[in-house]
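Propose amino acids for all 306 sites.
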């Protein structure tokens, strides 16, 4: 069994292929930590000082929540030690720079009263801007589960990447990406609690096992009120589902085998249930239009579908 990769250890070069390497600085300009001005026309890989008022936030910034106390601590550190790791930006036609990586550092630098910040300028298209912002935040564990899920959904909706393509870029498995996006199907109140870390992703996955929103909310409130562990929350969710449809406990082994075969073939969850003596229903789950296109292509044997 292939070991699941939870990190992004392959580096940006392999995650975003076919990009030309930045020009290496000449030996005369290889001093460690040397900062130059933007006007010097430095190589793309060099560090330059840019006025903070010329830098605008990344329009695809995946992180929405910033803890004020953490920003204040970072600002104090910047006052004392400066910015150790340069920000990453891309120049726009209006003479400003759009931030790719370093939103927290930029905000803290402004709080610290810095006039300029050390920055690396690079070329980047729309997709790469989102990818780099997402990758940096995931590497730093800065995104909450909802922000991460929304970023994956954005890659799917706006850039047309399938869940498998997103997984390849992020160094994760396709089921992990699909399960992350499923969190967006939870009621808004539960999503907010997850974003605020009042519950964690394990609790949210347990709630997702319940198919009725009213019952999901009931389980969510029980998790908060009784401070249920993930194991206990999962047990509660399965109890709710057993009570909802008790005949799943004694499901025909042949039916279970069919479900497993279909799930493996289609790459998603499949359930088969009976509606009467000789009738039934097959439910195939999908979490985005592109996922449906891929499932239909497999069912019809035509990879051009969608």
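Proposal:
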């Amino acid at each position: 069994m292939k070991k699941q990769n939870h990190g992004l250890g392959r580096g940006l070069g392999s995650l975003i292929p076919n990009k030309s390497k930045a020009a290496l600085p000449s030996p005369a300009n290889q001093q460690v930590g040397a900062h130059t001005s933007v006007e010097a026309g430095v190589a793309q890989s060099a560090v330059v000082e840019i006025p903070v008022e010329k830098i605008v936030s990344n329009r695809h910034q995946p992180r929405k929540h910033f803890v004020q106390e953490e920003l204040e601590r970072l600002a104090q550190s910047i006052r004392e030690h400066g910015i150790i790791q340069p920000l990453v930006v891309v120049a726009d036609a209006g003479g400003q720079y759009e931030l790719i990586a370093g939103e927290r550092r930029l905000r803290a630098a402004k709080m610290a009263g810095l006039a300029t910040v050390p920055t690396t300028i690079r070329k980047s298209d729309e997709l790469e801007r989102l990818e780099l912002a997402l990758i940096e935040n995931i590497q730093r564990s800065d995104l909450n589960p909802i922000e991460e899920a929304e970023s994956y959904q954005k890659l799917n909706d706006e850039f047309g990447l399938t869940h498998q393509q997103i997984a390849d870029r992020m160094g994760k498995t396709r089921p992990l990406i699909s399960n992350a996006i499923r969190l967006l199907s939870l009621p808004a109140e539960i999503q907010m609690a997850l974003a605020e870390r009042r519950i964690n992703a394990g609790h949210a996955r347990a709630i997702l096992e319940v198919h009725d929103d009213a019952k999901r909310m009931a389980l969510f409130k029980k998790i908060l009120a009784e401070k249920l562990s993930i194991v206990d929350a999962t047990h509660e969710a399965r109890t709710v589902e057993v009570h909802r449809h008790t005949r799943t406990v004694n499901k025909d082994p042949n039916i279970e085998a069919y479900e497993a075969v279909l799930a493996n073939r289609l790459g998603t969850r499949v359930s088969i249930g009976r509606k009467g003596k000789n009738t039934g229903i097959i439910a195939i789950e999908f979490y985005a239009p592109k996922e449906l296109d891929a499932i239909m292509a497999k069912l019809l044997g035509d990879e051009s579908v969608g």
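The radius of gyration is 24 Å. Residues 145-159 form the longest helix (15 residues).
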